[in-house]
Amino acid sequence: AAVPAGGLALLLGVLLWRALHGAPLTELSGDQDFQLFLQRNLEFTRKIRGDVAALQRVVCDTFQLCKEDELLLVRQDLDIAQALLEQCHRRTFQAIRAGLRVYHGSLATIQALLPGHAGLVETLQLDMANLSSNIQQQVRGQRGDFVGTENQDPLPTFSSRFHHQVGSFFILANFQRFLETAYRALRHLASL
């Protein structure tokens, strides 16, 4: 079942807060490699957020779909996958990777809707895959193992072109909220 957009942001915030405050990271706070990893991936996350914002502007300009509150009734008819983030041991990393996986697949529906912007979508998907890989390598390096599922959610299907447009709007809006929360979590870890 899909979680309402506001509910997802609240759920994500609570889970990341628990992950950040529930387990000490003092053993890593002074590790220069870990700090370098965080700084690089903060920049990477910022770039991805900018690319998502660019796609949001395209959807707004192309389809005049710009305001979420005007589309909430239509959203109820859509089955859009959202990142339901789970807390991972002592880190938010597994939750971030799981969210990246959800949105990576969903971007294919946006590429189908906006074929003229396929290059931007492909760059975004590549950046997301690289960020996920960076996180996986860091977790393996710190813990020696990583447990994650690589199953991809099925692509959403839409009953009409308008639903496809609105669905794409919400995929991008949900992804942007996810990225903002992930960015805050990484920034918090960098400040420890």
Automatic annotation (TrEMBL):
SUPFAM superfamilies: 4-helical cytokines
Signal peptide segment: 1-22
Keywords for this protein: Signal
Biological process annotations from GO: immune response; positive regulation of myeloid cell differentiation
GO cellular component: extracellular region
Record-linked InterPro entries: 4_helix_cytokine-like_core, GCSF/MGF, IL-6/GCSF/MGF
Alphabetical list of SMART domains matching this protein: IL6
Keyword Chloroplast: no
UniProt keyword annotation of Amino-acid biosynthesis present: no
Pfam families cross-referenced by the UniProt entry: GCSF (PF16647)
GO molecular function: cytokine activity; granulocyte colony-stimulating factor receptor binding
Highest taxon in the source lineage: Eukaryota
Family: Belongs to the IL-6 superfamily.
Protein's recorded name: MGF factor
